[in-house]
Amino acid sequence: MSKLKKILLIIVTILVIALCLMIIKDYYKNYKNVAYSKELTKQNVVKDLQSNNQIPVLMYHEIDDSKGINLMKVNKEAFKQQMKYLKDNKYNTLTIDEFYDCIVNNKKVPSKSVLITFDDGYEDDYKNVYPILKKYNFHATMFIITGYLDKGTVYLKSNEVKEMSDNGIDIEGHTVSHPYLDKLTYNNQLKQLEESKIKLENVCKKTVRFIAYPYGAYNKDTINAEKKLGYIMGFTTNGKWANLSKGVYALNRIYIFPQYDLNNFKERLDNPNYSQVVHPIKSIEALYYSVRSWY
Ligand SMILES: [Zn+2]
C-alpha cells in the first residue's frame, strides 16, 4: 500500500469514527428528550386531573340582622334560607382537610360538595351561625383575626372558638391585625402569619395549616412565609370556584353579598362560571374596615 493510500485510510477511519460518535451522541440526546417529554406529559396529566377538581367555596363575613353600616352583612333569615337550601338539596359540606384532599390529592368527594367559610371571627359566628350549622350537622371553616379575639363585643371569645373547634368547625388563620399582606416586608408578613398561627393553636389545641388573606392580598413573600411556617393552602377573595389553576396558595372563593337572592346563591353553587356581577369588592372591603375601626 502506498503511503498516500495509508494516509487516506486513516483519514476515512477517523471520519467514520467521528460520524459514529455524532450519531450516538444525537441518539442519546434524543432519547433523553423523549424521556423528558414523557415525564412532562405525565406531570401535565396529573396537573390537569387535579385542576379538574373544582369546588365552590362560599365566603361570608357577618351574619346579623342589626342595622348599621356593613356592606357585607348577610341577614340571618337569608343565611338560614341558604343553609336550608344546601340541606334540602343534599349538599355535602366539607371539612377543610377533605377539601384539601380533593383539590390537591385528587380524592373523590360527592359531586354536590361545598366548603363554607367565614372571615374575621365575629361574635355572630357563635351567636347566629354556629346554631344553624349544628342544626344541619354542617362543617365549615372560620378564618379568625387573632388580634381582635376577646376584644369587646363585636368579635369572638377564645372559649367560643374552642367550643366550635371541638364540634366540627375548622378554625384557621386570617393574620393578627388584618393588614394588606402584599404591602408588608417579608419579616412583617412572617410575624403576622406566625403569631396568629401560634395563638389559634394555643386556643384550639390543633394545628393551623390554612389561611385566608385579608382583602385577598398576597405576594411571593406571603407564599414563602406560608411554606416556612407550615401553611399548606391559601385563600383569596377572587370569585369563581376553587381549583389549582393558580396554585395551592391562591384558591378562589365566592363572595356571598347581602343583596343576593336564592337564585343568585343557587347559580354560584351550580355553575363554576356563574355570571360575575361587577362588585368593587376590594374598595367595599376597605371601606368596611375603615368604618369598622371607628367602633
Ligand atoms: Zn377579613
TrEMBL record:
Subcellular location: Secreted
Domain of life of the native organism: Bacteria
Chief localisation class: secreted
GO CC, alphabetical: extracellular region
GO BP terms, alphabetized: carbohydrate metabolic process
Gene Ontology terms, MF aspect: hydrolase activity, acting on carbon-nitrogen (but not peptide) bonds
PANTHER family per UniProt: POLY-BETA-1,6-N-ACETYL-D-GLUCOSAMINE N-DEACETYLASE, PTHR34216
Keywords, comma-separated and alphabetical: Signal
UniProt name for this protein: Uncharacterized protein
Origin species: Clostridium felsineum
